[in-house]
Amino acid sequence: MTWIKVASKDDIQEGNGKELNINGQRIALFLSKNKYYAIEALCRHQDGSLAPGKVNGEIVECPLHFWHYNIRTGELLDYMEGIKLTTFPVQIRKNEIYLDI
């Protein structure tokens, strides 16, 4: 495992996302119901960033065309079966957020 410090807990607010660029990889970090999630940032439809999307529990809605993804599992929930984004384990150490990349 390679844990990388990516943000401070203060960098992200409840119900919101933040896009990170880690070694050229775009990752969306979300805080929902006091739990942090990290997922590939780009929607499979037209590569729009999921980070500014609406978050409702474990679901994020792509702001471009309203596709829905589970931010815990990475699964696309509508339109096509079998589409899944990569998710990344998140670890909190004091006030810092680390991802296993």
From TrEMBL:
Query: Is Iron there in the keyword field?
Result: yes
Cofactors? [2Fe-2S] cluster
What is the gene name?
A: carAc
Q: Pfam families of this UniProt entry? A: Rieske
| InterPro entries, sorted | Rieske_2Fe-2S, Rieske_2Fe-2S_sf
UniProt protein name? Ferredoxin CarAc
> Could you confirm whether the keyword Iron-sulfur appears in this record?
yes
GO terms for MF: 2 iron, 2 sulfur cluster binding; metal ion binding
> Cross-referenced Gene3D superfamilies, in alphabetical order?
Rieske [2Fe-2S] iron-sulphur domain
Q: Which organism is it from?
A: Candidatus Nitrosocosmicus oleophilus
Domain Rieske, by residue range, is 4-99
Keyword terms of this UniProt record: 2Fe-2S, Iron, Iron-sulfur, Metal-binding
